Amino acid sequence: GFVAQDGRITGPTDAHHVWRPDGLGWRPSVPLPAARHHPHLVSWQGTLWAFGGFESPSPEAIWTMQASGWWLDETEGRWIPAPALPAPCAEAVLLASGAGYLHLAGGRSPASSANATWQDQADQTHHFVLDAPGGIWQPAAPCLTARNSAAGAVISGHLHIVGGRSVTGGNAAAHEVYDASEDRWRSAAPMPQAQGGLAAAELGGKLYAFGGEYFDRGGGVYPEAWAYDPATDTWSAIPPMPHPRHGLGAVTLDGAIHVIGGALKASGVETSALVEIYRP
Predict the structure, then answer these.
(1) Mean pLDDT, rounded, for 260-264
(2) pLDDT digits over 90-117, tens only?
(3) Where would I find the H helices in 120-194?
(4) Residue closest to 4 by CA, chosen among 276, 267, 275
(5) How far apart are CA 8 and CA 251, in angstroms?
(6) Which helix (H) or strand (E) holds 184?
């Protein structure tokens, strides 16, 4: 991700840290082969994978989008090249389905040959699927909405993509569900509030969504958090985040959701090392 000091982003990092729930806490682990921000991380088939994101080879090219990725060989203590995405991609949603497939949906990719600044890229509806660690990404049914900085989770084998934003439309409340058996997306109940740059995780058959940022009204971050029940296709509010953040992560562990990192202000200002745990 991005590292910031004194309220200013200083660039991407290759840092990789691991937290153990057995009391040993956080420890540094194998750094990424290259410093990147906005890479997509996922646990797939018992291994940690990282795809896409941006590298910053110069101050004039801090948003150089990538297609390559790696998987972590913990035995050897090194990252191994993974099958490259069909196109450079970032700010998408990467999910491992219960059927053993890896899905990348939405996000942004270069609009033409230029690939150095954020303005060089455009929102996408693309949807790629990887069926094996040594396979090739294949196209699947495109998303219904072109957006970036959304979040998602897998519930009962279905992919749920929520929130996010587009350059032309701002923050989105859209909620789309993918059924792999039909290779088809459908619309579900939208989020009660449009939130981009949020995080999401599944717990107990429900989807939980946290945080995000907005740029109108002077900009800020959302304290609101939500729970979605697919049985009734309804959202409900849960207690707001103690420390509102965007660009954060959320992962389910031992019956709770760990909400990790992010920034306390919009646009990456005041990056945070906070970890807060939500229990339903």
Answers:
(1) 94
(2) 999 999 998 899 999 999 999 999 999 9
(3) none
(4) 267
(5) 27
(6) strand 184-187
For the chain, the straight-line distance linking the first and the last C-alpha, in angstroms and rounded, comes to 28
51 strand-pairing partners: 40, 69
159 closest CA partner among 42, 249, 277: 42
Q: 105-157 pLDDT, tens per residue? A: 999 999 999 999 999 999 999 999 999 999 999 999 999 999 999 999 999 99
Query: What's at 9, amino acid-wise?
Result: I
In this structure, the number of other CB atoms found within 10 A of the CB of residue 49 comes to 23
HSE value, Cβ hemisphere, 13 Å, CA-based, for 139: 7
Local confidence band at 8 (pLDDT 50, 70, 90 cut-offs): confident
What does pTM read for this prediction?
0.96
Which whole-number Å values give the CA distances from 118 to 16, 110, 166, 239, in the listed order? 24, 9, 13, 34
